[in-house]
Amino acid sequence: MNAVEQVEDAHLLVIQTLNDLPELEWDIPTVTDGWSVKDVIAHLASFEHLLVDVCKTFLEESPDTPYLSQYIKQHDDFNNIQVGERSNHTAQQVLDEYEEVQADATSLLARIPVETIEEKGTLPWYDKEHSLHDFITRLTSHTTHHCDGITAFRTREKQ
């Protein structure tokens, strides 16, 4: 499967996982390490922003990449910082942000030649032995993991 399809499939999984989620369940802090569904989607949105920044490094001469910079400099705190920055947002605002930035990421990724996406060693901050496609595979697996957590949460809530 190509990288764009992977990203699109992961997005579809998020949308399917959230389908008909009652509004009251968005803020219950029991999905992942005390995070709510809203927090998980905020977390996934921050990783879509990260993917946008990574794609920009392949497409622009000197891109502005605040998420990538923060991810590299504050890797251990990146998740909590990003989720915290969205803590006062509504669930709808977080979902809208996720959907918007996911579309941006997919659009940018589609502009990168397949050969470049597959080329090893293009992400020295990530792993010199891996490619952009490898990074995307990790991100989409990460998304699947969180969707599985939301699904498990939803199952528990129905019981």
Structure description:
The protein has 159 residues and is mainly α. It has one domain (3-154): Up-down Bundle (Four Helix Bundle (Hemerythrin (Met), subunit A)), CATH 1.20.120.450. It contains seven helices and no strands. It is globular, with a radius of gyration of 16 Å.
Helix percentage: 55-70%
| SSE run | HHHHHHH
**Which CATH-level-2 architecture?**
Up-down Bundle
Gap between N and C termini, in Å? 37 Å
The low-pLDDT segments are none
Number of strands: 0
In short:
This protein is mainly α and 159 residues long. Helices cover 67% and strands 0% of the residues.
Which helices and strands, and how do they pair?
Layout: H1 3-18, H2 37-59, H3 66-73, H4 78-85, H5 91-110, H6 114-118, H7 132-158
Throw out a few tags for this protein:
159 residues; Four Helix Bundle (Hemerythrin (Met), subunit A); globular; mainly alpha
